[in-house]
Structure formats: C-alpha cells, structure tokens
Amino acid sequence: MNALIIGSLLFYALVTAALGLWTRGRNEDTSEDYYVASRSVSWLHLGLTVTATWFSTFSFLGAPGFFFTKGVKWYVSFTFYTFGGVVLFWFFSRKIWLMGRGKNYITPADLLADFYNSVLIRYLVGIVSLIALVPYALIQLVGIGKAVEVATNNFISYETVVISTGVVTAFYVFTGGVRAVLWTDIIQGILFAFVIVVAMGIAVYAAGGLSSGFAAAVEKRPELFVFAEGDFLNTVSFMATWTIGFITLPHLWQRSYMADSADGLIKSGIVVAFGGLLMITALMVTGVLCISFMDVAGDSDKLIVTMFSEHCPYAVPLLILAVFASGMSTVDSQLLTASSIFVRDIVKPLKSSLDTRTERLLGQYFLVGLIAVLVVLALLPDAQGPIIALATKGTALAVMLFIPLLGPTYLPAANKVSAVGALTLGSLYYVLADIGYVDTAFGLTSFLSALLLNTVVFFFLYFCTKK
Amino acid sequence: MDDDKGFRRKDAALLLLFFLGIGFYFLPVLDIAFNSARPVLGIPLSILWLFCCTCYLVGLVVMFSRIHFSSWVEEVDSGRSA
Question: What ipTM is given for this predicted complex?
C-alpha cells in the first residue's frame, strides 16, 4: 500500500512538473501574462480554478472534521459563505475586472493605490495582503503533511511530505506561472471533487445507509443537530469573514482580473455555485454520518483520512492524491499572488524603472524564497494545531480591504484619508484583539469588532474630509 | 427610462430574494423555526432546512446571472462600455 501511495505521488508530481514545463513554452515574457494570463481565461476555466482555489485542504480536511465536531452550526456558515461569496463576487468583481482590464491591474493594491492616488495605500494593502496569504498558504502544507503521515501510518514522515510538496509546487509555479496553475487547478479540482463524492459513498455505506446513518448520528450526538443560545454571533462572524473573503483574499481578487470577457466572469460564478453545491453537500453528508460510526479523539482534521484507512483502505492512495491536489491548487495561487504583490507593491514603488521582464524574474525568485519560508514554518510544532483557525485569521485580515474597496466600486467620492485610516486601524485592532491585548467591542468577536471599527473609521473620515 | 426602471425593479426584487435567503438561514440559528433534530424524509430537520436554503441560493445565483447581469454583460462585451 505504501509503495502504491509513493508511486502515485511521484506520478502526480511528474505530471504537474510536466505541465509547468509545457505551459512555459506558451507564456509571453511579461508579468501580465505570468500573473493573470493576459486576461484571456475562459468562463469554464475561470470557474474551475476559482472552485479549486476556494475548496482547499481546509475544506477537504477541516470541513468534515468540523461537521463531525460542530454539526449543523458549521453547515450554516460553510454553505452561506460559498453562495453569498458568489453574489458578492458578481457585485464587486465585475467592477474590479472592468477596471483591471482598462488599467492593466495585477494586484489588489494596483487598483486601490491607483484609485486613492496613494503610494502609502499601495504599501499598506501590499503588506496586509502578504500577511493574509501566509497563514492560509501555511495550512495547505500542514494539511497535506498531516494527511499523508496518518494515511501511511508514519511511513512517510510529515517533514518529507511538507518539503517535497514545497519543491514540486515551487517548480511548476516558477516555470509555468499562472497558466501552469490554471491547468493544474483543473486536474486538481476534478480529482478533488471525485474523491469527495467517493468519501460520501464510503460514509453512507459504512453508516448502513443515509437515513439510518443520520438517525444513529442524532442518537449519539443530538446536540450537534440544533442551534444553542449564543451560537448566533460566532456564526455571523464566521459567515462574514469568509463571505467577504471570497472577493478580498488577494489570490481570489487576482482571479477577477483574468476573465476574457464580462460574460466569462458572470458564467464562472455559476460554475462555482454548482461546484460548491456538490462539494459542500458531499462534505456535509460525510462529516455528519461519520458521527454515527467513528470516534476520533483530539485532532478532527484527521477524520477523513482515518475513515478511509478504516473503511476503504484501498482508496487511501486516491485520497492522498486528492489531499495533495486540494492543497496545491490553493497554495500555488497564493504563492503566485504573493510574488506579484512583493514585486509590484513593495519593490516597484522603490525602483520604478523595473521593466516587465525583470518584474517577472524578480517575482519568480521571491516565490522560491517564500515557499522555503512556508516550509520552515510548517515544520514548526506550533503550526501543526487545528488548521482552520490559522486560515480564518489570514482571511479576517484580508476582509479589512473590503471597506476601502467600496471607494473604486461604489463610492467614487471616497478619499485616501478614509481608506488609510480604516485599513490601518481595522487591521491593527484585529491583530491586537485576536491575541487578547485589547478588549472586543459590545461582546462581539475580534473580527466583527475590527470590521465595525474599519467601517466606522472609513465613513467618519469620509464625511469629515468630503469636499 | 422605462427599461431602466424595469431593470432597477428586477434588481431590487432579486436583492430582496437574496436577503430573504439570509433570513431563511437564520430561522434555525435564532431558534425561530426548523431548529430540531426530528427526522423528516430520514434527514434531521435542521440539516434538511439548511440544504433547501442552499438550493434556494444556488437558484438565485442562476437567476442573478440571467436577469441582473445580462444587460451589463451585453453592454460591456459589445464594447459600448469602457
């Protein structure tokens, strides 16, 4: 079995590396082509890459574990933020796309700094974006490492998996840029969806059928199927973080620039919605039915791997491949976006004479450095706790970009004072509140308090400085 | 002008339906209705309700694309808008 797992992983690594080399020959030697495929991505391709990027290791490992431990509370957040995210995507991303097409934007800061005419905003947005990407990218590596280690009974160590995933991802993103990412995303997305459906089948079979599985789960843990008093704020906080994160997470924002047409952008949302319905339903059924026949003490991220190992060991190699796929399809996009942010938002303002080719080269080298840092971070013991909390922190920071985004999209009279104030205070407050250094407002969560402050500061300064 | 008003009415109707969807989601969360583990069609009621809400939102997403954005898409892709 272990030989089969190693063989399939090696085969998969070779395929993705080959795709990197294949797409390299099709790239134009410009940063616009390297990062946003010259804005030529079709609706199906865009929809699949957004779906694959959105449903990461976090969804694959974290979500069934959350259904298992939190039940219906998790279902409401998970479903709402995916479909609410699509609606927001249309209302905001179509404007982002239109402006990006007209002015060749590549990063979120390109748009915001240009609209507010401020280099300070470019730096602030760039730094917030990088901070938002790191924990989210980190969980992909951690998730893959954990899954393979558990599935192979420690035959392949966590460290080996993390390092080799870093090397393979860095190789195909370095060589092929976003075109390699888009093609690997399609393979990874389809594989990921297929294995989730297989997982649902295993869960239904092991639970003795859908109805009896649900009945046994309710009998075992009835409290997981009803909402209790006090769940409201946490649910709203989680829903808001991820719904808004759907458009403000830098790697998803960058995808808004890639569509080849307005029609493509809108249709891609439908692909995401139906892909989301399929995946969320399968993940929910799997996680909830596991309650009826499994006991996983401690780390719930290992639930799905344990289920495969105990109830369908022959499918473990397929599961491992899917975990690789889900992690890589997110981390590759994040690496690429982070590299574009580093070059365009941090380096370029200091050295404006950078040509587009040098920009691309610099981005490629930064990308390799960043993944080396992520691998080191993933190997630290503290990074191996429950992975969802890390991703939520990063996304919460990215959400602080939402209110300043109202300026270029719906509030043309907004100015840089309000944007700088909102972004700085909102982000700082979130970080301080999250580590418990300052209290949260009105008993809200740290995220909701920070978003409230972000909004109040933005509109207060907007009205104070409005001419 | 009439077309513009019609478009706005459709927008408003769709947004209303969307906010109604959010309201549906919060019925069990706020313990107003459907907050029960009682099986209906073999599925716990709260789960079944949230699944129906999800399908409702997917339906809205399709309606949004056909009704709300179709004129914008046509305008932009035909080059009438920069």
Answer: 0.84
